[in-house]
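Got a spare moment? Tell me how you read both lines of this record:
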Amino acid sequence: MAPAKRRNVSSGKTPEQSVKTAQIDLNSNVERILESRKRANDVFDILEFLQSDKEKDVIRAVDACSKLFSTLLEKKELFTGKLPGEEAALSGGHSAEEKYRMFMRHRYNSCVEMLLELISHEVHNVKESAMCCLLKFAAGEGQHPLEDLDWSEHYSFPRELILGVVENLLSKTTNNSLLISRLQEFLEMDDLRYYVMSSIRENVGKVMDKSKGAVLPLYQFNVFTLMSNITMPSKESELTNFMIKQEAKHEDWKAAKLNEHKRVFERMWLGFLKYKLPNSMYKKVLVILHDSILPYMSKPTLMIDFLTAAYEVGGAISLLALNGLFVLIHQHNLDYPDFYKKLYNLLEPSVFHVKYRARFFHLANLFLSSSHLPVYLVAAFAKRLARLALTAPPTALLIVLPFIYNLIRRHPSCRVLIHKPSTEDEPLEDPYLMDEEDPAQCRALESSLWEIKTLQKHYHPDVAKAAMLINTPLSEQEEDISEVLEITAYELMERDLKQSQSKSVPLEFETATQLLKGGGDVLGQHFCLV
């Protein structure tokens, strides 16, 4: 028997009807629908609760829909194939069985649409319930497909449903990082991860092209959060955890092949990074680039355009971009002749005063660790650092001086910068060109490290002591600068105060014990208090 004509889910109700609806036991409704097809119209009451203003009612309705339609999928009581329109399904020459299955399939489609909208709900619990329900439907559709199968590529995976989830998850107006972290649990399933990556790439292209490449901070933040939560397998033998096990031709399925995962992963990241990013986003990407992105790309050198663009941003982003380029040069044989020129031009007074100073010198030490670098290049770095040291704070000088000494130790030919022959008391003009951007043209080897001699008269004793080392032959053992990379002005002052407190200093006056009151009652001697 065909079900009764459907009611409009969004139609208005009188207060008396609303009270009656609120008293409906949704679980009992689900049981009655599953027990008797005559109660099929009760599904409208469940769907209506999905539009409730009350959080508890919506979550109850989501749970009821999950139970109802998962069961119908499992029992194969939803129409499969190309679904006729609602009116055509009820008035055409179909059997009662077909009409029922078409009717419930339309209700299922309406449910999916409403659940997708609920992913944008203002209450997190509602959003999470809706997303989890949709993923359960995806698993059910995979086992019991509703559409004709495309065996050429996607097999029985409900790709369109996952695409809808991803599109609603990547909001332009709402920070969905909490919801995305919930999705991460599901991304352990290899086939779901594969189609989520494919959906991200498709969505990013559509959204960013529509915005004509303009920066969309919140949207791009959501995209990055989702992509950075994806953990890639390193071996094909690890691809064993699937949401949907394909019964036929599983070995030929793209989602079951590591090379296809890498291909989609690479296209996803390149598709995201080809557009202009918010400045803060560059830093987030570059920090994880060498560990979480490059190792899983088929052709890591394709990142060269992004890294070059990131370098142009300046500041810490430029340094992090050079770190990525360094990885490509050493691990993937990238030919990038301007690398050290770009690093040289990052040496400015600001590097001593910013929070990424420690990271800068750590990476610079790594970049300059090779003993095969040309002498003129090492001399240029040593000379530029020495010149910048004249105006650097003590905390930076305790890093810079050992850094310069280490460069000279690695490259003995640079000792000419220390032992530059000259006539006593003869004023010399420094040939070094500080404003020259090319280290090969700055004439550093013609100069000397007179700046370090100057620092021997620095007001801070630790700096003066470090500068005095240049007067003695440098040992072959390099100094470990890791201990001083993170030192702050506060820590330096605390250390100096502790050292001074341990010393007894002879004084010509009686030590003050409190503010404006020394020995002999200073205030009493000079002021008459009434």
Notes: Residues 96-118 form the longest helix (23 residues). Residues 358-530 form one domain. The chain is about 55% helix and 0% strand. The chain has a mean pLDDT of 84.
